[in-house]
Design brief:
With 346 residues, the chain is α+β, with helices and mostly antiparallel strands. Helix content is 48%, strand content 16%. The protein has three domains: 147 residues, no CATH class; 106 residues, no CATH class; 80 residues, Phage tail proteins - horseshoe like beta roll fold, CATH 2.30.300.10.
């Protein structure tokens, strides 16, 4: 079974967990506005800002924590979260923390101690003041199943091979340098989007082809980036399993046209215009969607991560949306081509 298949099974577990509907209703109330935009019970502004953080449940907790500063110039009052609501979100976030930690610890035991190098929440921490358990999205046995499949991630073999090669370059390996480089790579990739390759990455790849030491360090950095991206994908699937019954589906029924696409050294990607429908409404950056179609001879059946989005209107099509999509491989990695290009480091 692949990591993607295992994550799908975890999504089914979440949909049946006790308390899921209460959490789903809370997230819905924080993300959908009232009919009267000046209604003081409207909290959709919290949801809008939380989604910009792209941190699932943690985004809502941070916006609530910083609400006085965030909303100080708003012309009306933004209601805060109740203690029970805060506890519900904190419990859901702790479920993700436990899953991530199990995967991170397992990888570090097979390679070296990377600390929080590929922790999706490495730069943001939330310490709950209430330690009660109101909801648990999945069990320890569910976490172990994800962890065991995560250990089959090809990034682990890339790290092992690179570390072995680096033994020939005494004193060269600097974990902090690799972690910093993985963060810089991620920033560039997100900034440019899935359709292009950042110039810095092309330049670094050119150097890596000539110098084995650079290739080894780059391999470890890309492996850390890939492991973090895969964990982020799992976290996002968990979040979407709470808020919706199905992932948005892009198919022949709603796709208007493919307006771009690329298969390059970094990612396999698409740019698609689709009509809003029951199958797929508005989607946000970092959301996961299903792409399943036979469009002009192009057969696709992929789970994808959303990059840039844009809403447009026309007299013929009405309201439609353009999205950039990163294909995820079976390990839920959007950067699989980049990782695979460095996998021959051994």
């Amino acid at each position: 079974m692949t990591l993607k298949q295992r994550a799908y099974k975890l999504s089914k577990v979440i949909k049946k967990c006790e308390g899921r509907n209460e959490l789903k209703d809370l997230l819905h109330s924080l993300s959908h506005g009232k009919a009267d935009p000046l209604d003081e019970s409207d909290r959709s502004h919290i949801g809008y800002l939380a989604r910009q953080k792209k941190m699932q449940f943690l985004g809502f907790l941070f916006i609530d924590k910083e609400r006085e500063r965030t909303f100080k110039n708003y012309p009306f009052r933004i209601p805060h979260l109740s203690n029970d609501e805060r506890l519900l979100l904190a419990n859901a976030h702790e479920s993700l923390i436990g899953l991530n930690k199990a995967c991170i610890d397992a990888v570090c035991s097979k390679t070296i101690d990377f600390g929080n190098a590929f922790d999706p929440f490495r730069e943001e921490r939330y310490t709950p003041t209430d330690r009660r358990n109101k909801i648990k999205l999945f069990s320890e046995s569910d976490i172990r199943l994800i962890r065991d499949e995560f250990l089959n991630h090809p990034a682990i073999d890339v790290i092992k091979a690179a570390l072995t090669k680096l033994e020939d370059y005494s004193g060269l390996f600097d974990l902090r340098q690799c972690v910093d480089l993985s963060s810089l790579l991620e920033t560039d990739l997100i900034r440019v989007g899935p359709l292009d390759v950042p110039l810095k990455i092309n330049d670094t790849l050119d150097v890596a082809r000539q110098r084995e030491d650079v290739r080894c360090l780059l391999s470890i950095s890309v492996a850390c980036l890939s492991l973090r991206a895969s964990l982020e994908s799992i976290n996002q699937l968990v979040y979407q399993a709470v808020i919706s019954e199905k992932l948005a589906l892009l198919s022949e029924d709603n796709i208007m046209q493919f307006t771009g696409g690329s298969r390059n050294s970094v990612a396999d990607s698409h740019k698609i215009a689709f009509q809003l429908s029951e199958q797929a409404g508005l989607v946000n950056p970092s959301e996961l969607v299903l792409l399943k179609c036979d469009f002009g001879g192009l057969k696709l059946d992929n789970l994808c991560k959303t990059g840039g989005t844009r809403i447009s209107m026309s007299a013929e099509a009405g309201t439609y949306m353009e999205v950039e999509l990163w294909e995820l491989d079976d390990h839920l990695n959007p950067y699989a081509p980049l990782l695979n290009s460095l996998a021959n480091v051994a």
